[in-house]
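Lecture 7, part 2: worked example. A protein chain together with iron/sulfur cluster.
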Amino acid sequence: MCGVFGIHAPERDVARLAYFGLYALQHRGQESAGIAVSEEGRLTALRDLGLVAQVFDERSLSGLHGELAIGHTRYSTTGGNAWANSQPLVHHGRARTVAIGHNGNLVNAGELRASLGKPLGSSSDSEVIAALVADDERPLLEALPAAMGRLEGAATVVGLAEGRLFAFRDAHGFRPLVLGWLGDDPVLASETCALDLLGATFEREVRPGELVVAGDGGVESLQALEPAPRGALCIFEFFYLARPDTRLSGVEVHGARVRMGERLAAEAPVEADLVLPIPDSGTPAAIGFARATGIPFSEGLIKNRYVGRTFIQPEQGMREQGIRMKFNPLAEVAGKRLVIVDDSIVRGSTTRQIVQMLFDAGAAEVHVRISSPPVVGPCFYGIDLASEDELIAAGSTVAEVREAIGATSLAYLSLEGLQASTRRPADALCRACLTHEYPTRVPAEAAKHRFEAPTAATRPART
Ligand code: SF4
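Predicted complex, written out as structure tokens:
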């Protein structure tokens, strides 16, 4: 889960525009943020751990000049949360210097790393992409399609090289990327919400396998790779990851999530007094569930929206409070039959704690409704779900999951119901973590820290 942004605008403050673009994409990654600019072909990058507003201030932004900028917000899926893995990554190769921001996960990163025959400065799979382009001595417009052709898995990429901005999507189109215009200047972003914040107009989605290059000569588009016969835009983007005001494949995400809640109400109705969302990702589906059933919607659970990366560990007694760092129930739940609606259950520990918290607050019944089917497999394409043995629904029945989370009842939205709610055909979306039907070969080794030397943080814990 990462956000990427790119702009070519010689007459504007591109670093500031990238900052605001990233600000709109903060939900896609909160571990690190960075901006790289190109000024007459010279690259400068500033990146660090933290939120966009923590990494950049007026002073640091005013030091970033250029005609072109790219930006990145990161949530780690390959390589740990370390400064060296924050992006944009800059790689100095035999042919050129390349800055890159990558959303997605490669399934052949190990093979590609080995083929480079040199060590890399980071343990993420993204620097491999930069190295392939940077070491290729052919012209940039030949090196880029050649690199794209060697990548397997998910790669939505923005980059800078030789005074040009480039952006591409892998042939499956796992992760979104849109092209828009700020006046006459091209803007690329993971989601349309970044264009909206800048006041840029949306032109279109970058196609799977398409390469877009922008520079002083204008914008060129090249269908560098044949698109995969079946599209594979991630269905998790629809029910969890993308911002509700974003439009994915022409569909507003909020509306799709409300429809998921309405379908869920039709598939798994229940008699209750209040419908509560697990904020924020469960909110649109809870609105849909309440609308369809006529059961009053209640905020019920108040979320502290300022809990981000915590640098200060709570002391032991507070740690046991666990979920109260994030949520607190309102008194009105006491004595009520509640329906709580969330977008998904992954490991189940948060849901179990919330159910317990609501019973502790006096709820008479807690019915859990999930606006997606059970997550039964890991993701190899850029969402850090968990390994299969950590997924509560893998190898368990719905009744067993209900028991584990301690709910009065539990129901998931069917795959058909989810698909219909997106208004996209089944052959346009990846649904592999729900069905085990992976659209690419699956890597034998996919551990997040596989390219890191063992350290105290990455060594398996002693048992
Ligand atoms: S496996 Fe699941 S999370 Fe990963 S890209 Fe496919 S649908 Fe999305």
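Residues 174, 234-236, 379, 381, 383, 430-433 surround iron/sulfur cluster (CB under 6 Å). The longest strand covers residues 32-39. Keep this in mind for problem set question 3.
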